[in-house]
Structure formats: structure tokens, C-alpha cells
Amino acid sequence: CGRQVGRPLRQRLLVVANRLPVSAVRKGEESWSLEISAGGLVSALLGVKEFEARWIGWAGVNVPDEVGQRALTKALAEKRCIPVFLDEEIVHQYYNGYCNNILWPLFHYLGLPQEDRLATTRSFQSQFAAYKKANQMFADVVNEHYEDGDVVWCHDYHLMFLPKCLKDYNIKMKVGWFLHTPFPSSEIHRTLPSRSELLRSVLAADLVGFHTYDYARHFVSACTRILGLEGTPEGVEDQGKMTRVAAFPIGIDSDRFIRALEVPQVQEHIKELTERFSGRKVMLGVDRLDMIKGIPQKILAFEKFLEENQYWRDKVVLLQIAVPTRTDVPEYQKLTSQVHEIVGRINGRFGTLTAVPIHHLDRSLDFHALCALYAVTDVALVTSLRDGMNLVSYEFVACQDSKKGVLILSEFAGAAQSLGAGALLVNPWNITEVASSIGQALNMTSEEREKRHRHNFLHVTNHTAQEWAETFVSELNDTVVEAQLRTRQ
Ligand code: G6P
């Protein structure tokens, strides 16, 4: 879809996401420091530059006092961010509860919580009520800052109720909604008690986007089977109102990574890491410490590989960066202990006095350290059980133009559809298959690595976050124009 003639080059865009691209840490009554937030959504949206964008979202911190709120609002304004203040109870019920204990696992095919998981965060109904209340709070802030001609782009599973709230305020608002996770098969979505209300709220948007065609198809099926609406190749139609539904695969700001490799500090890191691991092949995992990332399964596959390949035992090392996330949710706490237990056991089994096979870090790395790590890696392991897209795989590829390392990639990550031809695709549940792919990757000829890398590198550098956002917003503009034209006919 082309741009309309006469449209201003830098359109005002209100990006609404649960989490702002920066998280706030309080240093004093009126003083705050801001740190870049983790996660695929932030990493992609940081690459979007063409718009006059403002972010609206939660700064990841409870600020009960007005003095603190005023100071934080001021600090965030410098970053073009506008905070939504959520109190502890709402965060507990809406974010820990409905978003991360119900929708997140469900959308990743891990099912609805059993009784014991629900009991920890009170009842489903009160969590859903808090979810709607929180979405309304986001809508209030959007409405306060909205100006005619703005485009409002809502993101992710936290804000499925937001399109409806916004249209209730102003039917003419151009509203898009994009999901960064998979949208599951309609049979899975059907199990959700609030299934219809959520679908109807999303359908209030003018444009609904997903990473892959499959997710878009699942969403349309859910609307036809659960709501009895009509699905068309364009989207979903409800009593003459068409909601456009389509796939918009996300990308990264690949230049940012490629340029970083030239920075002296990164070069220095690369030199240090190369010396530190000389004589060993480096395998890398970078994930938020989340059950969808399949970290225990990945480590068990690595153990199986070591078990079956004595030759490699002192010639390979696995570096696993596991960024802590959602640490108040009990499921995530259990996962941390489980991963530590497995890593300890394997290091005890295969380690020596001078070296261990797995270096496991429960923390994030700064951008430059991360780029250096990507650059020295021989084999990256992205073995999510399910993943909307997975941008770590893109970041790795962007940093590999000299080394041409191998990407082992889960067939259940959205990225498998774009990087599948260059990566070794695996079923992460099949530990034997992953172990044998590790062997294949470590033994691959340089010609084959080059060929596979070239395919992926071209994709990652040609399909950027910038292009993703421009395509979505351009289509959103056109969708609204089409809708207006239809009403005039
Ligand atoms: C995923 C979600 C994002 C979320 C990120 C980090 O990428 O799609 O919406 O921001 O995880 O999770 P958190 O709960 O820390 O925001």
C-alpha cells in the first residue's frame, strides 16, 4: 500500500504498550534513573525512527506519591514517554495475574492455570476486572494526549481491551492493534472464559496485525467460530464494519548492531572473549528467563550432546544469558530454581578443575557486551517452545557477518518462517533431535555456513523494524480512509 499524496512525512504516532522502552528506578524523592527495558517489543520499536512518536505505558514501578509522579513524568518527557501510573494491587491482578499468569501461557499453548496457580493471584473474575480497569486507565491517558490526525498504535496482549475503550472515546480515532506473541489456534482461545469479550474489543480497532500469516488465520477463525462473524481475505466483518487483519513480520534495527561491532569498546570485548574461550567453540543462548523459551529443554539437549560426544567435552562451552523477568509470578520463580538445579548437575558431571561446560548468567548484558558475545558465537541456540517472532535470532545474524556462525532455531518461533532456510530448524521438545543438530552445527563446513548465513543476513538487513512500522502505519492510514469512503457511499 503506497503512502497518500500530501500526507505529512512525520506523522504523530502514539505508541501504547504496557511497558515503556525505559524502566524507572527511584534514586531520591524527586530523582529517577531510566534504564532500557528488556523484551522483543522494546527492541523492535527502538528501531522505529520515521514518526513523531510518543510512548504511553507503565514505567515498571509503583509511584504512590504525587511528588514522585510529577518528577518521573518530567524525566520521561525528555524521552518522549508518557507514564500510566498503576498501583500495586492493579499490577498484581492485571500484570502478574491476568496478563502473565493467564493470557501469556495460553497464547503460548501452555494452557490455562490450574486451581493452585489461580489461587495465588485470586480469582479469574477479579483479574479480568483489573485487566479491564487497567486498559481503561491507558485509554484515559491516550485520550488526554490525543490530537486530531494522530495514529494510535496499541501493542500486545496486555491491551486487548484498549481498542474498544479508545473507540468509545472517539470513533474517528485511527486505532491499530498488534500482537507480539503467537495467537493460538481457535480451539485454544475457546478455553478462555472471557474469549468473546476480548475478541470483540480487539475488533473495534481499524487494523489488527500479527507476526505471521498463521497467527492472523487463527485470529480470524476464532472470530468466525466463537463470535459467528464472517471472515474474508481482508479480515473480519461485523454488521458492515470491516476490521482489517493481516500479517506484518517484525524486524530489528540491523544497522545499529552492525555499527556497534566497529566501536572500540566492542572490539576490545571481542578480543577478550576470543582469548578467554580460545580452543573451544562457543554456543550461546540469550533469553528472558521464561518458560516459553525452553531453557531447561535446551540445557538437557546440550547435556545429551556431551554425553554422546566425548570428543567435544572440553572443546565446547555453552553461555546461557537468562534475563530475569516477571519475578513476582510463582511460575517464574520455580523455573529459576529448576534451571539452576540442571545447570549445577551438568557442570558437576562434565566440569573439570579448570573449566565448566555451561556458564549460566541470571542477568542482562549491556548492548555492547551483548553485540560482542553475538559476534564471537559459533552456534546460537534459540529453542523456544513457542515464540511470537524471537528477535534474538535476528540480532545474532546481524552480528555474524565475519564469523558466519550457525543458528539452531525452534520451528515454533515465528522467526522460523523467515530464517528457516538459513537456520537448522528443530522441535525443541525433541531433545535427541536438538542434540544431533548441535553436532551438525559444530561440524558444518564453512561453505555451508556461508550459504546459510547469507540467506539470513539478507533477510535481517532487508526487513527492518523501520520497514515493519512504516508498513503497518501506512496500512492503518489507508484502512481508515477506505472505511470513511465506504460510509460515504
Ligand atoms: C514479550 C512481550 C512484551 C514484553 C516483554 C518483556 O516480548 O511481548 O510485551 O514487554 O516480553 O516482558 P515484561 O513482562 O517484562 O514486559
TrEMBL record:
GO terms for biological process: trehalose biosynthetic process. In the C-terminal section; belongs to the trehalose phosphatase family. The keyword Transferase applies. It comes from the Eukaryota. Keywords: Glycosyltransferase, Transferase. One of its GO terms (cellular component) is cytosol. Its EC number is 2.4.1.15. This is alpha,alpha-trehalose-phosphate synthase (UDP-forming). Transmembrane segments: none annotated. It comes from Liquidambar formosana. GO terms for molecular function: alpha,alpha-trehalose-phosphate synthase (UDP-forming) activity; trehalose-phosphatase activity. It is an enzyme of class 2 (transferase).
